[in-house]
Amino acid sequence: MTEIQITFDCADPGAQAEFWARALGYRLQEPPQGFASWDEALEAMGVPEERRNDASAVTDPTGEGPRLFFQRVPEGKTAKNRVHMDVRAAPGLAGEERMAALEAKAAALVALGARRVERFEPAPPLAGGHIVMTDPEGNEFCLD
C-alpha cells in the first residue's frame, strides 16, 4: 500500500487545520519529539514568528486515514476544485434517515465555519443524496 497525504493550499494553515481536525475527528500534528509545543520547536529551529503559520497538519488518531497538510500560498482560490473530499457522514444509511444524518453533520460544520452550498436529493438506484459544502476558505467538499 502507498501512503498518501492530502495537501491544501490556503491563506491560514492553522485555522484550516483546526477546522478539518474538528470536522473529521482528527488531531493536530504533534510537535517533534523533545518539544512541548510547535512554538517551542519553531523557535529552536530559528523560524521567525511571522513564518510560524506557513504550514500545519492534522492526523487521524487511529492511523488509518491520510494526513492532511495545509500550506500557506500567496494567491487565493480562483476556481472550483477538480478533486474534492467526500466526508462520509452517513455510511450505510438510505433515504430520509441518510439525509437527516447529512443535515445534522452539515449544521455542525456550519457552526465551525463551513458554508452549505447545495443539497442533492436521493435518486435511487445509484444516487443516495449528498450535500455540497465549502470549508472556511472556500474549498468544496461533499457530505456523503
Keywords for this entry:
144 residues; alpha/beta; 4-stranded mixed sheet; 26% strand; elongated
Tell me briefly what this model is.
By secondary structure, this protein is an alpha/beta fold. The protein contains three helices and eight strands.
Number of strands: 8
What is the end-to-end distance? 25 Å
H/E element sequence: EHEHEEEHEEE
Give the fraction of residues assigned to helices. 25-40%
Question: Per DSSP, what share of the residues sits in E-state strands of 2 or more residues?
Answer: 25-35%
Neighbour order of strands in the largest sheet: 1-4-3-2
Q: What overall form do the CA principal axes indicate?
A: elongated
Q: Show unreliable segments.
A: none
Tell me what you see in this structure.
The structure is a single chain. The protein is built from three helices and eight strands; from the N terminus they run βαβαβββαβββ. The chain starts with a strand and ends with a strand. Helix content is 25%, strand content 26%. The mean pLDDT is 95. It is an alpha/beta fold. A hairpin with a 5-residue loop joins β7 (130-134) and β8 (140-143). The strands form two sheets. Strands 1-4-3-2 form a four-stranded mixed beta sheet, covered by helices on one side.
What topology emerges from the helices and strands here?
Elements: E1 5-10, H1 13-24, E2 27-28, H2 38-44, E3 55-59, E4 67-72, E5 85-87, H3 95-111, E6 115-120, E7 130-134, E8 140-143
Parallel strand pairs: 1-4, 5-8
Antiparallel strand pairs: 2-3, 3-4, 6-7, 7-8
